[in-house]
Amino acid sequence: MAPLLTVSGLEKRFGGVTAGKNVTFSLDAGEMLAIIGPNGAGKSTTFNMVGGQLKPDAGSIVLAGVDITGKPPREVWRLGVGRTFQIAQTFVSMSVVENVQMALISHHHQTRAVTSAATRLHREAALAFLDRVGMADMADRPVNELAYGDVKRVELAIALASEPKLLLMDEPTAGMAPKERTALMQLTSDIARAHGIGVLFTEHDMDSVFGHADRILVLVRGEIIAAGTPDEVRSNQRVKQVYLGE
Ligand code: ADP
Ligand code: MG
């Protein structure tokens, strides 16, 4: 079967800085793929090229057989790329379930719907997405009363509501306690597997990466210097030298 995502030969320069050099990888449905590397390696640049926030100078990005290279973010999102952010993006004064309802309204192009209509529209569907992330029992609580780990789970439900084929997660566990991190990563990989969603994530926390990624890409100065399973990457000499500092 063809991979869900095929990234070939991406190049990106900012003036004299090489942020992407022949970046090539693929990602299967249901797979968790991590991108790691030192600060300034080009992780966010790669992410933003896949998400449509940045246009590559060269190369191609194909999602489920559709060329999405250089398409604007909204188009990329419509074609099946969901996204979560380093700092969770939610409507904090709205309730948990209303946040997911808003995502469903957007996904179904009912952009003229107003908040009062949203109190009914898609409520059952929204509760089903909240159930997937274990937040259905907190559906009517305002988001600003939640613990941060729970906000991150709501954000995941919001992303899932657009029924993505691929989910981009930029440092999903930033700002979380170690126990919460493990729970969020386990939840994410369970959902990815159960629904055949590919997950591409960046992460500083190495326990989240080595404990939950199926494969890892190591990026240094815009170039992939190693790729493989956690065991393969952990024992890679070049990774030890230039990245893990051993
Ligand atoms: P990472 O996410 O791995 O820390 P980035 O992708 O953010 O790295 O950055 C890669 C390199 O590209 C860095 O040297 C950074 O300064 C540079 N860079 C990133 N975005 C821009 C931009 N919009 N304009 C100029 N330089 C940028
Ligand atoms: Mg970054």
Please name the fourth-level CATH homologous superfamily of the largest domain: P-loop containing nucleotide triphosphate hydrolases
- What low-confidence regions span 5 or more consecutive residues with pLDDT below 50? none
- Ligand identities: adenosine-5'-diphosphate, magnesium ion
Beta percentage is 15-25%
CA(first)-CA(last) distance: 38 Å
GO molecular function: ATP binding; ATP hydrolysis activity; L-isoleucine transmembrane transporter activity; L-phenylalanine transmembrane transporter activity; L-valine transmembrane transporter activity
Pfam families: ABC_tran, BCA_ABC_TP_C
Domain ABC transporter: 5-246
Protein name: Amino acid/amide ABC transporter ATP-binding protein 1 (HAAT family)
Kindly describe this structure.
The protein has a six-stranded mixed beta sheet, sandwiched between helices. Helix 3 crosses helix 5 (123-132). 37% of the residues lie in helices and 24% in strands. The protein contains ten helices and ten strands. The protein has helices at 43-51, 73-78, 96-107, 115-118, 123-132, 148-161, 178-195, 206-212, 230-234, 237-242; strands spanning 5-14, 17-27, 32-36, 58-63, 66-67, 81-84, 166-170, 198-202, 215-220, 223-228. Strand 1 (5-14) and strand 2 form a beta hairpin. With 246 residues, the protein is an alpha/beta fold. It has two domains: 1-77 and 166-186 and 198-246, 3-Layer(aba) Sandwich (Rossmann fold); 81-163, P-loop containing nucleotide triphosphate hydrolases (Rossmann fold, 3-Layer(aba) Sandwich). It binds adenosine-5'-diphosphate and magnesium ion. Adenosine-5'-diphosphate binds next to strand 2 and helix 1. The site of adenosine-5'-diphosphate has 11 residues, from strand 2 and helix 1.
